[in-house]
Amino acid sequence: MKKTLLALTAVGALAQAAHAAPETYINDVSHTYVNFQISHLGLSTQYARFDKVDAKIVLDKEAKTASVEAKIDVGSLSSGWKKRDDHVKNEDFFNVGKFPSIDFKSTKATFDGDKLTKLDGNLTLLGVTKPVSLTVDAFVCKEHPMAKKMACGANATGALKRTDFGMNAYVPNIGDEVKFTIQIEAFKQ
């Protein structure tokens, strides 16, 4: 009886050890950007990006679950023209002095097999929190060939209406719909 109990305990311990635990990944700041585009007067599409993003991803590949928390430094906005950057950072648009970050916290992750395909969450911009959905493509996790540790990367796309967050300046001349793309690489901690 003791041997049977010991054997069952050992099997149970091995089964628990075999189950992969959630893994935490922190973004590689040199390979993580949020790009966005918006219509300008119906004449052209203007592009800009945020250069500073901090993100934490908790991924359980076996259970097919993931959570993401990200903070975008609005002051890192870059459109390629300082005068425009200064205007977009002021009270008309991002109001960096009062709202220095854009925050995202996921609420649901959708997988297709081993691939993360969609991430739903709440985005806080200008003090207003609204749900957003990100379509994820090119999701892959593997050993980073130079860092020699596990890394995950993905591209994600989404869209929002800036007026939903109270950013109303110059609508409709400056478009209401903002499309964005996120490129991220993250290392296992």
UniProtKB/TrEMBL annotation:
- List, alphabetically, the PANTHER family matched: PERIPLASMIC PROTEIN, PROTEIN YCEI
Question: Which domain of life does the UniProt lineage start with?
Answer: Bacteria
Record bears the keyword Hydrolase: no
A Pfam family reported for this protein in Swiss-Prot or TrEMBL = YceI
Q: Which SUPFAM superfamilies match?
A: YceI-like (SSF101874)
Q: Which UniProt keywords apply?
A: Signal
Q: Which InterPro entries match?
A: Lipid/polyisoprenoid-bd_YceI, TTHA0802/YceI-like_sf
| SMART domains the record matches | YceI
**Record-given protein name:** Polyisoprenoid-binding protein YceI
Q: Which organism is it from?
A: Chitinivorax tropicus
The keyword Signal is annotated on this UniProt entry: yes
Where do the Lipid/polyisoprenoid-binding YceI-like domain residues begin and end? 24-187
Task: Check the UniProt entry and state the signal peptide residues, or none.
Answer: 1-20
High-level lineage: Bacteria, Pseudomonadati, Pseudomonadota, Betaproteobacteria, Chitinivorax
